[in-house]
Amino acid sequence: MLKFFRSTGIDGWVSLGGVVLSITGVETMFADLGHFSCVSIKVAFTALLYPCLILAYMGEAAYLSKHHEDIQRSFYKAIPGKIIFKYQIMFIVATFAAIVGSQAVISATFSLISQCCALNCFPSVKIVHTSSKIYGQIYIPEVNWMLMCLCLAVTIGLKDTNMMGHAYGLAVTTVMFVTTCLMALVMIIVWKQRIISVVAFLVFFGSVELLYISACVYKVPEGGWIPLVLSLIFMAVMYIWNYGTMKKHDFDMENKVSMRRIVALGPSLGMVRVPGIGLVYTNLVTGVPAIFGHFVTNLPAFHQVLVFVCVKSVQVPRISENERLLISRVGLKEYGMFRCIVRYGYKDLQQENYDFENRLVSAIVKFIETEEEEEEESAMMLTTESSREVGDSDIEVLHAPEHPLKNSNLKENMKQSSEDTRMRESDIEHPENFVLKNESIEILRAKESGVAHIIGHSYAKAKKSSSILKKFAINVVYAFLSKNCREPEVVLNVPHTSLLEVGMIYYV
């Protein structure tokens, strides 16, 4: 390589930016690993792709060895002249090759955007499942339209394939270098490799990739600025969205409403409980959100059963259906308030036909029954421990023949408790047989009265003491993204007939 640089000078070094275009297909092939199996890629590359590439490159190299001056159109002129319609055929083949290469980029973009939405790093968009059998095949209309507009803008604006090649080369080489750096982190954190091995890997591959990047930097004024500008724009959008979301979460954490305050407000506001189940959606996993305090202050009435629903995306690929819902109680049992944390992995997507209301009610009933059983078990354990502390004389008195009523009452109580246990087991299978005093029947009756979904329609605004940059980021950019992204009720598939929106301003 040094001999090549000495003979060609700076022009040979700069030409590495064009040489890198011959290996960009490898990067696209690895991008396909997220959508095809390793076996199918190996078979296709070995049996079809590699032989065709070798023949095409050998034929073009043979043509260039005799025609040094004609480089621009060597791809078309390298075809033997006896073939009819050779230009048209090769144009069609090149078009299909471009479609196949762009399809990998489009699919990878859909996958990345969906994961960014799950991690609150990108505004919510519509995600459509294109296959009912194969998981991961998704389609995002908004992103597809954005890619189409960007492709048309670049093609019409540049009007030069060389400038497009410069932009593509800089983007690919930068992606390769970033991938190498992230691979080094995986080797240290996940694979637990030695530092010497990681440094050797980073120096060997990183030096080659930095050499190609430095050659592509010379092409920045000639089209290489496009990927740099687009990356800065998308990075700014992701940072501002994540920053605004985290600030709203901090506002909710600082302005949580205590249960004592809610109970204290009841007599003064004339607060009443209406039949039905109210689902209050919030991002908090603890406490009562500020949006609920704002709601009861303006409308001093809420439902007989209140459930605070929190939808969270966890750092695992998938969550099983048995572990999807986490139910807990808020306040005392008399309040009739629960909390439900709905967990999704970053690869889990909510289905449109997901029967959330029935699943939620079933989970709450199961939680109540389990809670009662645990209370009975704990009471029995306390009774057993207390009986062990009774003296021998007391035990003799309990089992003496002069106390037949106590012995009969004890047997009757044990028989009655076993019958109650069997009754609860049958009630779980057949909810219509619940005892009227059971809390579970109140939940089911409230479900029959109707379910209302209460969602906060919040507006974030920067404080007056904030800097100009923060005001622009929150009041302009974040407000624009919030207004044009998908609404929470659409993401959660909430029916409009039972939707209540509560407006509130968040000062961050």
Automatic annotation (TrEMBL):
InterPro entries for the chain: K+_transporter (IPR003855), K_trans_C (IPR053952), K_trans_N (IPR053951)
The alphabetized UniProt keywords are: Ion transport, Membrane, Potassium, Potassium transport, Transmembrane, Transmembrane helix, Transport
Residue ranges of the TM segments: 12-31, 43-64, 85-106, 138-158, 170-191, 198-218, 224-241
Q: Where is the K+ potassium transporter C-terminal domain?
A: 275-506
Query: How is this protein positioned relative to the membrane?
Result: Multi-pass membrane protein
- Localization in the cell: Cell membrane; Membrane
Its predominant location is membrane
User: Which superkingdom, per the lineage?
Assistant: Eukaryota
Q: Where does the record place the K+ potassium transporter integral membrane domain?
A: 2-263
Into which family does the record put it?
Belongs to the HAK/KUP transporter (TC 2.A.72.3) family.
Q: What does this protein do?
A: Potassium transporter.
Q: What is the protein's name according to its record?
A: Potassium transporter
Query: Which species is the source of this protein?
Result: Xanthoceras sorbifolium
